[in-house]
Batch of 4 targets.
Target 1
Amino acid sequence: MSSTSTTDRQPTHTPAALIAFAWTLVGVPLAYGLYQTVKTATSLFTG
Amino acid sequence: MAVPSFLARERIIAKPGFNRWLIPPAALAVHLCIGQAYATSVYKAALVKHFDTSLTAIGIIFSIAIVMLGLSAAVFGTWVDRNGPRAAMFTAACFWSAGFLVGSLGISTGQLWLVYLGYGVIGGIGLGIGYISPVSTLIKWFPDRPGLATGMAIMGFGGGALIASPLSRQLMDMYDPSYNPADKTSVPVGSAVAMLFLTLGLVYLVFMLFGAFIVRVPADDWKPAGFDPSTVKQKALVTTESVSAANSIKTPQFWLLWVVLFCNVTAGIGILEQASPMIQDFFRDGTTSAVAATAAAGFVGLLSLFNMGGRFLWSTTSDYIGRKPIYMIYLGGGIVLYIILATLGSTATWIFVLTAAIIISFYGGGFSTAPAYLRDLFGTYQVGAIHGRLLTAWSAAGVAGPLIVNTVLDSRGTPGELVAGDYRPALFIMVGLLAVGFVANLLIKPVAGKWHEPKSDAVRTAERSAA
């Protein structure tokens, strides 16, 4: 790790939009999976 | 083994000001994909019909994958730690995706051995490397909350199955119009499963590469704002020393934790493997059960939710109460719950469902807390590689858990006629296993100083940053 030059270590700023996009990308499929599973699980109480 | 420069660890060292909250989605992008491994039951019946073979022959595909997961995590753990998360995620993406593509070819051409090789061996290697790829990085980015960090990622593994199961049904419905996912007796044709494999292989490749693209490692001198490493050292069993992966397996602590994980996973798999028939058998009167097949499927769904939720909730809790106490809860609480399940489980559905759900949440928690426990005992130096070696306990439990339950049930009668009492011997074996794990956890003490890396090596980082 010591190979990084001084220029490489200049401060950066992570765009909030990139963080939001990344979380959305993983959050949407996870929400889909959760919704589908909750729907299936409710049959335990109704089925 | 050198990696191309665009994958090298040196290329992904975060600059000052980088937001660490970009790392959990990178880890989730990988774990949500490889978690598909727990959704193989969706197309099991279709493959049995397509290859005109037994359920056991198809079940072997999953078994090979889990064994390869443990082996590849153990063998490639040091390589993952040395080359960093981008190289590991990229490699995992290639193997996991290639596994699906070769598997798809095997299904299309009617060659089951190609599915063993593809999904089982090649995909299994992707599983192992993918599983450990973000763990060490997350622990380094979240030294103040390692349980929360690894809990988030490993929760993704549980979440992957929640996504893959309904998604696979919908895709097979699209590729085979005669298949009706709502009808439990409907089975899709083999070509639909081949297309499903092809689709999943490509989608997972893109998704995992996204994780590899955004992941970063912290600089050696980085620490979260307001975080004082000396506060970590004050906690019992937590070290700031470094133990190498090679030395870790020479310590009793590693093997005691191996036994803890093995016992916890074996006990959980005992329920997970049999969940659907088990709830029906517990409330069986003669040949009919008070629990319908659809309700049993709902029970499996509920367990999946608790498996996933437990991974996040319990691992995060361990940051506050400590790793050893949380495993005492998993194992000690598990003993009590298994006894309740064996003795009172058949008296009321709510007792059965509640106890099983909490047991499964402990099962999930056992997985996600393990990396943080390793960090506490061995430091962050080669925690990914050590975690990889520990995962062989999962492979062993994957064989032992179903073997115990199936052997007991086979000796008690035939499926469809079993009742609650037939499960009791298996459940009490699990109680015994959990007791062994509980004692093993109690015996875990700090690692002896002779295993610590020499200070000159271990603190090289601090010296460099101070220079």
Note: Residues 29 and 35 of chain A are 10 Å apart (CA to CA).
Target 2
Amino acid sequence: MLLWPSQISVTTFHPKSLRAGVLNSVRMGETGKRRNFAIWLGLLLTLLGPLSSGLVFIGFPAEPIPWIGLALPTIGVVFVLIGLWRAFARSEIYRGKIAGSIVAVLSLLLLAASVAFFRAVRHIPPQSAGTPKVGQQVADFTLPDSNGHPVSLMQLFSASASNPTPKAVLLVFYRGYW
Amino acid sequence: MRGIERELPEFKAQGIVPVAISVDAPGTSEKLRGAKGYTFLFLSDPKAEVIRRYEILHAAGGPDGQDISRPAEFLVDRSGTVRWENFTEDVRVRPRAEQLLAAARAIP
């Protein structure tokens, strides 16, 4: 025998209780309280921050948005704090008192590490007034190459058999100690 | 520097010789070249003499307080004149190879 939905609702149970039952099974764990997703979303965001900041050091192209590694953990900590507030102030509805506390400490440490990292990568002294400007001449210099052979700047402009005379040398100064 | 290595043929076509300079000893640079597959020239300035002359020294900026170079790029033409330069405020943010090539193309 076929039962129409309207008949079910009338004869067996109220539709509201059906919906509540489905929601319960999704949102609530064994304790009968809602899962506190804000905590876990927050933790994920705080983890993504350092991850995105470090990508450039493991071979990814240069950081396109330098402050993203700071923004993500900051937003993450906000979510964790929302989750923590839910766990304690609305503990009759939400779970996560213990997990929330642990995650809160962890996310704050991650945020602190992200801030320290951000300061470190941007810790470059102010530009000196004596740095050669565009249009200024620089003196020749001689330094050893990676095989120890001395090479002078002006020597690099000499034409070789395979190459015509170069028009410019691109000096890329880098920090070293990689 | 990965970008420079990738675009080496284009740099060559533009008549640009890329040179990397740091305080690393020649052996250290050679190791880096080998590990990363860089084939362009690396020069060593362990006493930061040239780095000091360019006034781009980052005093005590190394991992153990060593004097190092701040990241910087200069395009120097045949007459020794600086044609383009770039400084960064974040060691992770370096000019892309395309930017360097664009600056190189602007030199007649």
Note: The first helix of chain A runs from residue 5 to 11.
Target 3
Amino acid sequence: MLFISLAEVFPQLPGGGMWAIVFFVSFFFATFTSGLGITEVGVTTVSEETRLSRTGSVLAICGAIWLFGLPSAYSSSFLGQMDFMFGTFGLPLATLSIIALVAWKLGPERARVIELNRCAGIYVGQWWNPVVKYVIPVVVVFIIGYGVVSSIGTENQTLMILGVALMAALVVGSTVAMGVIENAARTPTSEGGE
Amino acid sequence: MALSAVAWATMLFAIVVLPGVATVVLVRSLRTEEQKLTLIREQGSIDSYSPRALEELREWIHANPNDPYASEARERYNECVQTLRESDEPYYDWSADQIETLETIEE
């Protein structure tokens, strides 16, 4: 829609060229800054959990993203399938994982007073606690559930089953991998110092 | 294709709300980060909690002395108090009287 339909609509508007520039520049910055934020999660994890330097972690993560993106660059059909699976189930599941860690394992009040308000530009009050603990999980579960239910009986049903299975496999695989890396990095005397 | 007044108003509103707000937030963030960097260069460190946030941290530590993260919280609290005592210019809105009354928390 963005690069085909809208690209045809803008020339028909008065001052269409200007609107197109404003829109696509805004779109570029929106996607670029989101991309930086999403990449940073992987870079920080690799940098902290492995012996790679920050530069090495950035190169490793960006290289992996580039490799995983190659099939989508060659096939628009594959891009559509991956977009459906990761966009409908992957992103909400990633959000749910972060919420499970911060709001349910660590605890929202503990995370807020120790970490969130540390060197913060804006003070975050107690209203944040029920939002991350209850509101966001309900919304995310609804999004995942809606994706599943609205796919049943349609041409996307197989993709939906594959997507849910792939995301479940990724969660289990990532948890096992992090457990192995953590056990390998842990020395007998470092337990109490963590 | 002529656009209606409502369409023009909507487009202008969208431009003000989306890139406009993003620009204001970006400029504000860059300014505050620059201010932090300047203070770190001049003083070596900056206070890490605002008065309200540090007060909440103190209350949480007293309410949860045996929490697994209590020692880390105490460390951060004391670090902030120490920095405030040693700094000429705090980053957050601390008054001299407020800093004077602060005490570190012992285990």
Note: Chain B is about 70% helix and 0% strand.
Target 4
Amino acid sequence: MKPSATQILGLSAGKLLGEILPQLPTQFAQGATSLVAFLLMFSAQESERGAEIRVNENAAMRKLFAELAPLVSDAALKKKLEAAAKSVASSLQISDLDAANYELRCVLIALQIHIEDMQGEKARAAEKRIWQVLKDAAAARIVTIG
Amino acid sequence: MSDEISERLSKYLGAKFGGVVDVTGLARIPGGASRETYRFRARYKRDGKEIERGLILRRDPEASLINTERTTEYRAYQAFHKLGLPVPEPIALELSGDALDRPFFIMEEIENCTIGSIVSPDPYGPHRERVGRQFFEALGKIARADPDAVGLSDFDGARENSWAHEVQRWEREIDEDEREPQPIARAAIRWLKRNPPPPPQKLSVVHGDYRTGNFLIDADGNIRALLDWEMAHLGDPLEDLGWALDPLWSHGDIEHASGTVPRAEAIAIWEKASGLKVDPKAFRWWEIFASLKGAAIWISAAREYSDMRNADPINAFSGWYCLAFHNKILADRLSALVDA
């Protein structure tokens, strides 16, 4: 089995930090090299889970729109929510998932503004539901060093 | 390249100091993405006496010729160096591109010191408490300083509603630089506007980027230089405290401010040095603002990198690691407010 992109990127980062960086003569070269190594680590993480993060995030937004559309009184927004809830990305390539994510985030922002302006318990519950989706998305996108 | 810059620097400083200045050992050092930073040694005679000293050159990058920030940074160095804070002595400010193609300034080099990396779990080791006490005391002194008395009362910033001025500033950055919609940052902006903080206890010079990674310590844990004043402005002194206590600078332990002393102790040191009080409700606002400001800076950094205006890896790092971090902090803090 050939090495995976995740493995190549991770091992390359380790090589840079552990073997190449200490040989470099200047502080500037060492600093820039450590940053490049960190970027390789992030890329390794992205390679492994980038598509899954986007698929899950997009699915969570679509589910949210389907749930909250009945609460929305603005007809145009409601129509957008219903359409976005049924939308699909054109492929599983990161660029296509990102394009879908872009459209869904636009709808999410419009929905959140609408819900924040609404009164009542249902609106507050919806607001919490939106924040749960945002919290989950933010947590999933955290990258780590090491 | 280094030889050419050395030669031109030598010529520039010779004209400035009035004599021959020998420039040696010019080497680029890490200094963030906004400026090219170099260290060098200058040897010259003054009053018949031979002088040799280490100096730092901070030159604008090719993509930017914004003079205002350069002037701001230089003037802040001048003001707080005079006030006796650990700030390097500024030597020369050149706004034209005549000498080195782009604007730059020169300041003294504080030698034999280190900077605490934000990714290090324990950057100050046995000196963490000593560093923390100095760090928050110095910040209190900056807050205490009278902008008129230190000659910085014309700095950018609003005398009334400084919170609104700052929110607008960073909202504008996001408007200009976001490549994809930012629901968390947008929700934070709406919350900040709907829940304004009380007026500041006083108008202060705000450093603008007072945090771990922007100061130098020596081997005994003495803070020798407070750096990177390019975002200095007038405003509520709680802005700097909120930024200094932001979790991104906590080295993985948010109970210890900037990887140093416990948060409550940091706040107490700041209160004593500044003569001000920290209203928890107002401070909560400035903490959320700090994370929003961070998100805005990282969104801009990501844009710089993606558009190839400045492909320094620090911009990619900031736009990836730091933005993800601040989005999570904002989401956690704002959702907690909704839950409450």
Note: Chain B touches chain A at residues 27-30, 119, 180-184, 186-187, 190, 312-314, 316-317, 320-321, 324-325, 327-328, 330-332, 334-335, 338-339 (CB under 8 Å).
